[in-house]
Amino acid sequence: MKFLFINPPNRKLRNEVDKAVLPIGLAYLSSVLLQDNHEVKIIDSVIEDITNYFSFRNKEYYGLGLEKLKDEIRKYNPDVVGVSCMFTSVTEISIEICRISKECKTKYTIIGGPTPSALPGFFLSESYVDIVFIGESEKSILDFVQAIEKKENPDFTDIDGIVYKNSQGDIVSQPKNNFIANLDEIPFPARHLLPVEKYFKFSSPHGGVYKSKRNTPITTSRGCPAKCCFCSSANFWGNKYRYRSPENVIKELEILKSEYKIKEFQIQDDNFTFNKKRTIEICNGLKGLGLHWSMPNGVAVWALDEDIIKAMSESGCHYVIAAIESGNQRVLKYVIKKPLNLDKVVDICNYITRHKIRLSGFFIVGFPDETLEEIKDTFNFALKCNLHIAGFNYATPLPGTRLWEQAEKENLFVSKFDMANFTYDRPSLKSKNWTIQDLESLYLSESRKYYLRTFIKHPKVILFRAMDAFKKNPVNLFKIIYYRMIGR
Ligand code: B12
Ligand code: SF4
Predict the structure, then answer these.
(1) What is the whole-number distance in angstroms between the Cα of residue 441 and the centre of ligand 1?
(2) How many CB atoms lie within 10 A of CB 168?
(3) Which protein residue's CA is at the shortest distance from atom 29 of ligand 1?
């Protein structure tokens, strides 16, 4: 069977520098298919033409244009086109890629990733999408290929975690029940199908702070037992924490070092430090490798202590983003439901910086059930944490989360609500505690104050990111600064 996986072009965000991060999920799916002797190609539309901006249905994107993508599909002529829809913001363009694939006579169009996993019916309402894969798909894709290889009218009823239309056109939903227990069984991602040198050259890693351009992402675990109201992780990874063995992680890094000469990597896990013994073993194994590394996906502060931080620092970790979310304990406990005690956070932040690891924080403001005073607490708390930089996002109801359920139930979506506009840079939820105008003006004045004070105290990280963005696209940088200072 001939597979073509496509990472769609990315949405241009007004508050973010353009990024091309190697789509490791597609590289994992490809590696299991290659091991099963299929022919596979990956097109990451983002890296293939990162400076090409274009508009599709009045929204701006960057990456390979749709006409060129169509030529590529026609030339390769695959049996299956598989599109990865990582963000709500790329929903429309992901479906469009399925449409153009059907125009190229592709037999099956399949789609996976966080958004289709949460809203399969929405994707299947378009006739160009044949099957939605829910969450982790290394096993289900092999079951799918077996089914289509055997028969002209294949039977999908035994495949775990897919939603599709049957021969009568009815939508059949097979829930995701089985997750891969031993992650060491999955072969390492097929990075060789991607233009690895192009990612090095552009170097825009997750988190935006790096020591060497020769950096790449890895994932070492899946699943998180917490149930934060805004997070969709459990939909595609499940609630059980599953992890690769330290030996398996180190082996992959050794290969990356020898084959690709990487000097740095980013751990993209939701919860890397959840198992202390494993974390320290990985850190010990890293010591001989001499690599720099970072954790840009928001480390769970409740799963950190000084032993772990010391081991991380000694093994080359230079940058961490702490997922603090709110500076108000009531909001954390009763609104977000994150198991995080704020009394511990400042100490942990101090340990991290004392161990010479640069530190950022993720914060979310604008939950319908929080007050303006509580939002102010978040900005003030961020200042107390002595971070080198921080990110403040508006609460955004991602499909499949409790926040989404609340928004639907209480009709909290802002007017002209459009899921494809979920870009975290504008409020999407209403509240009885404030108006959108109140929220935006508080956000702007508090974040302006925060960034100015942090810039005076810790200029290095902000300057590094600004210089890096300037070298890549100066106009873009000025637009981001203007937006952050003026808010429009
Ligand atoms: C790396 C990452 C990024 C990278 C980009 C990744 C990429 N190359 O596309 C960067 C840093 C750019 C990024 C940006 C953002 N991100 Co992000 N990101 C992640 C992160 C941490 C890891 C993704 C990953 O590599 N996972 C590991 C691989 C193995 O999994 P995977 O790619 O999901 O693939 C598996 C399955 O999903 C499935 N699958 C995926 N695609 C396909 C396709 C087919 C055909 C099939 C069959 C199966 C399938 O099979 C794979 C193997 O099991 C996830 C969280 C997470 N833990 O997954 C968030 C996550 C995807 N990001 C998220 C968000 C919200 C964002 C931002 C909007 C944040 C912001 N405030 O700006 C931006 C969007 C930028 C934009 N321009 O629109 C959300 C998306 C939720 C949603 N429904 O929209 C997530 C889920 C985090 C969360 N828990 O909320 N992100
Ligand atoms: S701790 Fe992180 S990954 Fe886990 S549910 Fe909360 S936000 Fe999601």
Answers:
(1) 30
(2) 6
(3) 25
Pocket of ligand 1 (CB under 6 A): 7, 10-11, 13, 16, 19, 21, 23-25, 28-29, 82-84, 86-89, 110-115, 133, 135-138, 141, 206, 219, 231-233, 236, 268, 270, 297, 393, 398, 424
Among protein residues, the one with the nearest Cα to ligand 2's atom 6 is: 228
Residue 67: per-residue pLDDT: 98
pTM score of the predicted model: 0.95
DSSP string over 257-303: HHHH---EEEE--S-TTSSHHHHHHHHHHHTTT--EEEEEEEE-GGG
Q: Which of 204-213, 320-329, 375-384 shows the lowest per-residue confidence on average (mean pLDDT)?
A: 204-213
**Superfamily of chain region 2-174:** Cobalamin-binding domain (3.40.50.280)
Q: Which spans in 388-435 are helix H?
A: 402-410
DSSP 220-242: -EE--S---TT--HHHHH-SS-E
Report the pLDDT value the prediction gives residue 13, as an integer from 0 to 100: 80
What is the structure's pLDDT at 460? 84
| Domain boundaries 205-486, corresponding CATH code | 3.80.30.20
Q: What are the pLDDT digits (tens) for 7-64?
A: 999 998 877 789 999 999 999 999 999 999 999 999 999 999 999 999 999 999 999 9
Q: Report yes or no: 218 and 296 within 8 Å, Cβ to Cβ.
A: no
Ligand nearest to the backbone CA of 108 = 1
The ranges assigned to domains in the chain are 2-174, 205-486
Please list every protein residue whose CB sits less than 6 Å from any atom of ligand 2: 224, 226-228, 231, 233, 270-271, 300, 323, 338
